[in-house]
Design brief:
Order of helices and strands: HEEHHHHHEEE
Helix content: 40-55%
Strand order of the largest sheet: 2-1-3
Shape: globular
Radius of gyration: 21 Å
Number of strands: 5
Length: about 180
């Protein structure tokens, strides 16, 4: 085997390994996966950074601190809700979200933080303008139910009825009774 053939074989082997590693990135069971929504991965890293930054904001963006399942729900819902509200004329740009984050003490917000800010701002604006009625909530829930959503069990399960992630305990975990 000549040196040229060996180099090509080595390059092909490395290329195949990278290709297979890349394909593994789309599987829901892979590392750093909080959820996979219609083939799009929401990483645990983005979930944690968004939750941490939003919870650290002063003044607060939300009335209550985000939980992991609440953050994941927001990240799952954001593209659908923002697209729906865009159709109703309610748009929050990334630059506006970035300015809001900076005003609240987050100088370099992550993309997940910006997505959560855009979602919270758009919903608030739509409600204030009377552009978000019960029929809209039903239409949004229907759109979210149509998605293929696979949630890492660490964060719970996606409940199609509420279009949110609910924290669940595995069947093998039993509750600790007080007398024990």
């Amino acid at each position: 085997m000549t040196l040229s053939v060996r180099r090509r074989a080595a390059v092909l082997t490395v290329g195949a390994a990278l290709l297979l590693a890349g394909c593994g990135e789309l599987t829901p069971a892979g590392p750093d996966r909080a959820a996979v929504v219609d083939g799009q991965v929401i990483t645990e890293t983005s979930l944690q950074s968004g939750m941490g930054e939003v919870n650290a904001m002063k003044p607060q963006l939300l009335q209550e601190h985000l939980t992991p399942s609440g953050t994941l729900t927001a990240l799952i819902q954001a593209p659908i809700v923002l697209g729906y509200l865009r159709g109703k004329g309610v748009i929050v740009s990334e630059s506006v979200a970035r300015q809001d984050a900076q005003r609240r003490g987050i100088s370099d917000p992550s993309s997940s933080t910006l997505e959560i800010i855009k979602l919270a701002s758009a919903v608030s604006s739509a409600q204030a303008a009377g552009k978000l009625a019960d029929a809209d909530a039903a239409a949004l829930t229907e759109q979210l139910q149509a998605l293929e959503i696979d949630v890492n069990p660490r964060y719970g399960t996606f409940d199609p009825k509420t279009a949110s992630v609910s924290l669940t305990s595995p069947e093998w975990v039993t509750a600790l009774n007080a007398p024990q």
